[in-house]
Amino acid sequence: MYQCFIVEHYLNKPVDVYCGGPDIFKGTIEACADNVLTLNNEGKYTHVAIDKIIALWPQ
Known about the structure:
Elements: H1 2-10, E1 14-18, E2 24-33, E3 36-41, E4 44-49, E5 55-58
Antiparallel strand pairs: 1-2, 1-5, 2-3, 3-4
């Protein structure tokens, strides 16, 4: 369900992703499939399990 929301509202947009703890993942959402969010931050890719996301907001 959250995957559909991300694709519909945030695909190809820069976001910050919070999964708990001190880390915030930043980047442009390149893909969201198979319950994995893929962020591109200046050519470096981060893959985040969607079920671990606590909050997501635009940059």
